[in-house]
UniProtKB/TrEMBL annotation:
InterPro entries: UCP033563. It comes from Roseivirga seohaensis subsp. aquiponti. Pfam families: DUF1015 (PF06245). This is DUF1015 domain-containing protein. It comes from the Bacteria.
């Protein structure tokens, strides 16, 4: 099952690390254009290798940083403990998402024997970008996020002990406090390896980066007649957190529809009336509260106007996609079928690559874009439960793309993981 390894991280040198918050950057799929330009102005910010302006520049940057000692490789392999302290709007509670970063063998998630299960689809152009970055730099520039299962919380005592001596402790762009430490004790590391070896990991975030690693592995394996499965290209950098923890938060991702030919709000609502109960709302800002906890309910934003739509229960049997019932019953499946395919005419098979569909996690941004006319309308969704994610994974099917937003996002820049053979191989045999 899941095969994990300690590794020797590449990290910024001691002098630069003193201001690690100036070197960290958001992941490629959440960094805004404005953020990018600001971060690019710092020649040593991690964005230069995580979201490079071009691939050739990224490769040269990695080589230059190594040669000049901008980043150095840790001498002793370890598992890197990573805690994220955060809060959510409207709540006084402080959450602590606890996890650790290691290498994990990349296995084909289309196989029933895969060690890693995906829960949503990917978009091809984003996967290609990630393959290019990995192939050129031979570097995992940011860990993906996976979920393991430990109801006894047996690893937490070792992570808490490690956190008494943090490497970094800073606040990031999200207002999240990110703390990193490392475990070098091989006997303790073996406990982490043993905990994962009989499990399947659920990929929470980073589907494009993981698929990029998987496809790169397949390319390299095809070129290597002496492939053993232990080569560096078989492995992928992952941040693993306990799915049993109460500090795992999933936020909704809304849909923006734009560029629709001859779009007319009244025609859309008329088409939806066959399947949905429609209720105009007095205030668009009330959408989230009004749909909260209501099955198959969505908010539609049209500029300064908003309506609540909720599927008529008897209409669920009209959902024609060939999915198991556990997938058909999901809010997001209902939305993609009844609103986007049936009412708008964008077939399910075309939705992953449709230029008319984009994604936005911030409600205020959705509202602004509809008011300014940047988009035709927005579909406001609810969050999905961890239980639904588990059920879909184990059904062998996937959620629609961009279905979950595990908050907070992991940041780039605290460490990097090399898959160059001489940098990946452990300096001595420790049984991994």
């Amino acid at each position: 099952m899941a095969r994990i390894k300690p590794f020797r991280a590449w990290r910024y040198n001691r002098d630069l690390s003193a201001n690690i918050e100036d070197l960290a950057s958001p992941l490629f799929d959440v960094v805004s254009k404005k953020q990018r330009e600001a971060l690019y102005s710092n020649p040593y910010n991690s964005i230069h290798i995580s979201v490079p302006k071009n691939i050739e520049t990224q490769k040269r940057t990695v080589e230059e940083w190594k040669a000049k000692g901008i980043i150095n490789q840790d001498q002793i392999p370890g598992i890197y403990v990573y805690y994220q302290h955060f809060s959510l709007p409207g709540s006084k509670r402080t959450y602590i998402r606890k996890g650790f970063i290691c290498f994990i063998e990349a296995t084909d998630w289309n196989s029933v024997d895969s060690d890693v299960l995906r829960h949503e689809n990917t978009m091809p152009h984003s996967v290609n970008d990630r393959i290019d970055i990995l192939a050129q730099s031979q570097m995992n520039v940011s860990p993906t996020h996976g979920l393991y299962f430990d109801p006894e919380f047996s690893l937490e005592q070792y992570m808490d002990e490690s956190m008494k001596n943090p490497i970094y402790d800073r606040e990031d762009y999200q207002g999240v406090r990110d703390v990193l430490s490392v475990i070098h004790d091989f006997e303790v590391i073996k406990k982490f390896v043993a905990k994962l070896k009989d499990q399947q990991v659920i990929l929470a975030d980073g589907h494009h980066r993981y698929e990029g690693s998987l496809l790169y592995k397949q390319q390299m394996q095809a070129q290597n007649p002496n492939h053993t499965g232990n080569e560096a290209y078989n492995f992928h950098l992952m941040y693993l957190t306990n799915a049993e923890a109460d500090d795992l938060r999933i936020l909704p991702t809304h849909r923006l529809l734009s560029g629709l030919k001859n779009f007319n709000k009244e025609e859309l609502l008329h088409k939806l009336s066959e399947d949905f109960i429609i209720k105009p709302l007095d205030n668009p800002n009330d959408v989230n509260e009004i749909i909260l906890g209501k099955k198959w309910a969505f908010g539609l934003l049209f500029g300064k106007e908003a309506v609540k739509v909720r599927l008529k229960p008897e209409r669920i049997t009209e959902l024609k996609w060939n999915f198991p019932q556990v997938v058909k019953d999901l809010d997001l499946t209902v939305m993609h079928y009844f609103i986007i395919e049936k009412a708008l005419g964008i077939l399910g098979k075309d939705q992953r690559s449709s230029e008319h569909i984009s994604f936005e996690r911030n409600f205020s941004n959705c509202l602004e874009k509809t008011i300014t006319g940047e988009v035709d309308f927005a579909i406001i969704t609810q969050d999905i439960s961890m239980e639904d994610v588990k059920n879909v994974c184990h059904s062998g099917y996937t959620l629609p793309q961009k279905s979950t937003y595990f908050y907070p996002k992991v940041i780039s820049g605290y460490l990097f993981g090399s898959i160059k053979e001489d940098e990946f191989t452990l300096p001595f045999d420790i049984g991994f």
